[in-house]
Design goal:
Layout lengths: L3 E5 L8 H14 L4 E5 L5 H4 L12 H5 L5 H4 L1 E3 L4 E4 L6 H7 L8 H7 L7 E5 L6 H9 L2 E7 L4 H18 L5 E10 L4 H13 L4 E7 L2 H5 L7 H4 L4 H15 L4
Parallel strand pairs: 1-5, 1-6, 2-4, 2-5, 6-7, 7-8
Antiparallel strand pairs: 3-4
């Protein structure tokens, strides 16, 4: 059975997209699933957070998108996370310009992943926070979107932008694309605003909000600087346990 490909996306920055990709990947791998992380952000944070040396990449997602390497040639293994990574570095920023003239440019990632999808149970794509050609490649390649969001005033605005983008991509090139679920991140249960945004989410996205809540947690924030997911850095941290719960919820869901 081919992998479930999930784009982790939100058109608002600072919501914990990369943290969610890295820690959910590690949690799924810990539970015996074969996982590939695709780093589509030129900052390459999902790569470094997985313990991959960005400057040592010979082939990354950049070479794959330009047709200079296959996904199989570019994939490296994260020892810290026990999953595979299709890594990125600053070179990826150039792909935007270079792909503009190419045919079927929005299909590049989808076609590349088709060659390795049977080798994984889950493929998690870390999308940039802006709607670029890279993000579009991620959304075209995916079957589902997971949306991390912080429960604050402008968060719903970011999601409404994403919903509009999903609608356009569904109409144009990927009719199966759908929201898998919304993950509340950096959560402060003491905040009245968090509770108010919760109520709004349940109203506008019934059945699409994950039960698991990811708390603000210092260990989650520290782990990337050590080049490892929180599960390897501090297995008992609140943030670590929350992502293990999220993995259980994903595995138990209708898409599992």
């Amino acid at each position: 059975m081919s992998a479930l490909i999930i784009a982790v996306a939100n058109q608002k920055g600072g919501v914990g997209k990369t943290t969610t990709v890295v820690n959910l990947a590690a949690s799924l791998a810990h539970k015996g699933r074969r996982v590939l992380v695709v780093d589509l952000d030129p900052q390459g944070n999902a790569s470094t957070g997985s313990g991959i040396n960005k400057s040592g990449i010979s082939h990354g997602v950049y070479a794959v998108l330009l047709g200079n390497a296959t996904a199989a040639e570019a994939i490296v293994h994260s020892k810290a996370g026990a999953y595979d990574v299709l890594p990125a570095n600053r070179a990826l920023a150039g792909a935007e310009v270079e792909l503009v003239q190419e045919l079927a440019r929005e299909m590049r990632l989808k076609n590349a992943l088709a060659e390795v999808a049977d080798e994984y149970d889950y493929i998690l794509i870390d999308c940039p926070p802006t709607l670029t050609l890279l993000t579009i490649n991620g959304l075209v390649a995916a079957q589902k979107i997971m949306v991390p969001m912080v429960c604050e005033y402008y968060a719903l605005e970011g999601i409404s932008d994403l919903v509009a983008t999903i609608r356009k991509i569904r109409q144009a090139v990927n009719p199966q694309l759908d929201i898998l679920g919304i993950v509340r991140t950096l959560y402060d249960a003491r905040s009245l605003l968090s509770q108010q945004v919760d109520a709004q989410l349940e109203k506008y996205f019934p059945g699409k909000v994950f039960t698991t809540i990811i708390p603000r947690n210092i260990r989650l924030a520290e782990a990337p600087s050590h080049g490892m997911p929180a599960l390897a850095y501090d297995p008992k941290a609140r943030g670590t346990l929350a992502y293990l719960e999220l993995a259980d919820e994903l595995l138990a869901g209708p898409q599992a």
